[in-house]
Specification:
Elements (H helix, E strand, L loop, with lengths): L4 H7 L4 E2 L15 H11 L2 H5 L4 H6 L2 H4 L2 H9 L2 E12 L2 E10 L2 E10 L5 E11 L19 E9 L3 E9 L6 E6 L10 E2 L2 E2 H11 L3 E5 L2 H4 L1 H7 L5 H18 L7 E7 L1 H5 L11 E5 L6 H13 L7 H18 L17 H9 L2 H7 L4 E6 L7 H11 L5 E6 L26 H12 L2
Parallel strand pairs: 8-11, 8-12, 12-13, 13-14, 14-15
Antiparallel strand pairs: 1-5, 2-3, 3-4, 4-5, 6-7, 7-11, 9-10
Helix pairs in contact: 12-13
């Protein structure tokens, strides 16, 4: 969960956008403004940016938080080459200017929001648009459980607030009449579930189709439309992030003549595992599989993950202790907030108040206790992101239910790849396909439906 935390920590300070949008434009903002701001980042003259902020941005992104941004971008994406395409839209009194930044390893988007009445900056947002294929991809061995001659894959569209690109993977002979919908974990994610050298969801789809099942997967809403959502729905919750896409996939299956007589099984990974329990009473869903999921609150898991990651080398440095303590303080602030104004920069994980309040009330254990749908819960012993603590909570609350099967798998990590020891973030840079035992457990469960 909260995949690749180290890279997120490096860039998270740049991912800020204020939500107070006003009305009526009166002045024209220079389209060259983003280039001027980027040059200040390059030159280290971030005070010049700070003086252009409105009061809300000044609180969110003071100079000491801006200074590391450019070096972190260079560390992640290589040499800055230059500026690319640019476009702009308006939202009330704000002009939103999107500018492509061309780096050695990727194309980034730099979004600058400027209030045209005051000429003050109201938002700054960096997001990765496209990774470059710098080196020819090294052929990776195909796992023994995948046979690409047994299925075909086609492009599809899943309906949500925006259309989402997706894939239908279907066996040549679709006689088992079960269709799986794959649901991502936390953070923006492509339809393959790309994480380092691994494509977890593609691996899962191709494996299951090799065994005779149809699979629907799609690009996560926040991957392609993150900045649009921040503007159009600044109070977005977990339901907004996930549920409409899942329902869109269900609707697609029901409207497809090849699939509409099949059973629909949701497979959720990480945050997606707990999220799919929202569909416990959906009449179209015939079962659920929870992979590496947690019944706990994300902000509590994040604390544990920070402590684990920073202690991998056996030394927790003062700067790292500060990051951990700042997160703990924000969690405490959220848990004890009073009615009235809540300071956005005092909330944990960069999440808005409504998202956090939803998480606080969301109870996957309660959902599953009310559910009669067949459910499989799988977890791995070498997952540092969702640990045995989480599995034991599932087990202690649900093992008496006949419709729920729980299985703890030894020597697999968060993406259910084989791992000889407790995983670390760097492990995702190694190709580790899903362990065969995971498919064995899923197929065994399916056969008992």
């Amino acid at each position: 969960m909260l995949k690749t935390l180290i890279s997120k920590i490096l860039i998270v300070i740049a991912l800020l956008l204020t939500t107070s949008l006003v009305a009526n434009t009166t002045e024209v903002v220079s389209i060259e403004r983003p280039k001027e701001i980027i040059k200040h980042f390059q030159n280290g003259t971030v005070d010049e940016i700070y003086f252009q902020y409105d009061s809300a941005m000044a609180k969110l992104l003071p100079p000491h938080r801006m200074k590391p941004i450019w070096s972190q971008l260079l560390a992640n994406y290589g040499e800055f080459i230059g500026f690319g395409l640019q476009d702009s839209t308006t939202n009330g009194d704000n002009l939103i200017i999107n500018t492509d930044l061309d780096y050695e390893k990727a194309i980034m988007n730099f979004m600058l929001a400027v209030n045209t009445k005051t000429n003050k900056i109201t938002g700054i947002y960096f997001s990765e648009q496209e990774k470059k294929n710098i080196n020819p991809e090294i052929a990776k061995p195909t796992p023994s459980y995948i046979d690409t001659s047994k299925f075909i894959e086609s492009d599809i569209i899943i309906k949500d607030k925006f259309d989402l690109n997706g894939k239908l993977t279907i066996p040549n002979s679709f006689d088992k009449k079960i269709t799986f919908v794959l649901v991502h974990g936390s953070g923006p994610s492509d339809m393959d579930g790309t994480l380092g050298e691994n494509k977890f969801l593609k691996n899962l789809a191709w494996g299951l189709s090799s065994f005779g099942y149809a699979i629907v997967r799609y690009e996560k809403l926040t991957k392609r439309y993150g900045r649009e959502l921040m503007i159009s729905n600044p109070e977005m919750t977990q339901d907004d992030e996930y549920n409409n896409s899942i329902q869109g996939a269900i609707d697609y299956i029901n409207s497809n003549s090849m699939l509409n007589n099949s059973k629909i099984i949701l497979i959720g990974h990480s945050q997606g595992a707990s999220t799919i329990t929202s569909f416990y009473d959906n009449k179209d869903v015939d079962g659920m599989i929870l992979l590496s999921g947690t019944p706990r609150k994300l902000y509590d898991l994040y604390t544990e993950q920070l402590e684990y990651i920073f202690n991998i080398d056996g030394i927790v440095r003062p700067s790292e202790r500060t990051i951990i303590q700042e997160h703990k303080d924000k969690v405490s602030y959220f848990k004890n907030y009073k009615k009235g104004e809540v300071k956005a920069d005092s909330l944990p994980m960069g999440l808005n108040l409504e998202y956090l309040k939803h998480l606080d009330l969301f109870d996957p254990i309660k959902n599953l206790n009310q559910s009669v749908k067949p459910t499989l819960i799988l977890a791995g012993s070498h997952d540092y992101q969702v640990t045995k603590v989480d599995f034991d909570i599932w087990k202690s609350n649900l093992e008496s239910k006949e419709n729920i099967k729980l299985k703890f798998i030894e020597n697999v990590n968060h993406i259910l790849g084989e791992s000889e020891k407790m995983a670390v973030p760097a492990d995702y840079q190694k190709y580790t396909p899903i362990a065969p035992i995971v498919f064995d457990e899923i197929i065994k469960w399916i056969n008992n439906l």
